Amino acid sequence: MSSEDFEEAGHKLLKIKLETIHNLLIFPMQMELCIMLLECCSQEITYLRYYGLLGQRFCMINKVYQENFDKCFVQQYSMIHRLETNKLRNVAKFFAHLLGTFALPWHVLAYICLTVEDTTFSSRIFIKILFQVNEKHNIFSSCLDSLSYVFVHFKKILGWRLLTNILIQTPRKQKHRI
């Protein structure tokens, strides 16, 4: 982009008229802007924080962008097995940035189901990068206030029984067979 920083680029992109006539209907182009931003980020050789900051700015300005990035997360996660390793890494770091800065709500993690049947090698790498980036920047230590909110979504991901056993740390009673 020809902008000096992400703020200038965001301002220029938001100035674009985001509605066009498509088949005689007014079609909002905010989703296209989110897809374009994610695609540009994935095309880079290494992850550029510039795109994460730009996505964060859009999410903070208008909730429509937040909802669109939510849809992009679902779409990207469902097709993650098709991405090359470098693109996968950049996309994971982009969403990690949005989650880590609370620009994207943590409920997007509810779309992830951690079972052997539901995950692929690529999706496990995606999840690993997603959490490693946030751990590296101590995002989880700053998230303690919203732990109850996150707990609800982890409950959906991991299952109630597994999560309860992890948190309570109570051994199960074993029945003795005679």
Report helical residue fraction. 55-70%
Number of helices: 9
* Adjacency order of strands in the biggest sheet: 1-2
Silhouette:
globular
What distance lies between the first and last C-alpha atoms, to the nearest angstrom?
74 Å
Overall residue-averaged pLDDT value: 77
Give the uncertain stretches in residue-range form: 23-27, 169-178
Q: What radius of gyration results from the CA coordinates?
A: 19 Å
* Largest β sheet strand count, sense and barrel closure: 2 strands, antiparallel
> Would you report the number of β strands?
2
Return the string of H and E elements: HEEHHHHHHHH
Structural class: mainly alpha
**Portion in strands:** under 5%
Provide structural commentary:
With 178 residues, the protein is mainly α. Helices cover 62% and strands 4% of the residues. A two-stranded antiparallel sheet has the order 1-2. β1 (19-22) and β2 (25-28) form a beta hairpin. The longest helix has 16 residues, at 63-78. Residues 23-27 and 169-178 have low confidence and may be disordered.
